[in-house]
Amino acid sequence: MSEMPDRNALAYLLSNQIGGHRSPRECIDAIFKHLDPCLDKVQPGEPVFVLRAHDALAPKIVRLWAQEASRAGSPADKVEEALLCAKKMMAWQNLYGLKVPD
Length: 102
Hints:
Layout: H1 7-17, H2 24-33, H3 58-72, H4 76-96
Helix pairs in contact: 1-2, 3-4
């Protein structure tokens, strides 16, 4: 099995195949934006912060976010989705371990 090229190499290849009218950064944004539906609302160049299940702090931070989102009036289904994600993160940590962010 061949190794996956790094993101910049992949973006360069894609930008050339699209006809060269997109920059490598635009290609990366387009690829990763559609990997997760929640990223569909992200605007080009908009800062995004990602928490991985491997991060020991992630479930707690996601639960805190859900609590604050609920207080702010976010839809209940969005809050429940975040709480479910926190539970899945904890389950993942139980299986694979966790670490302090580096």
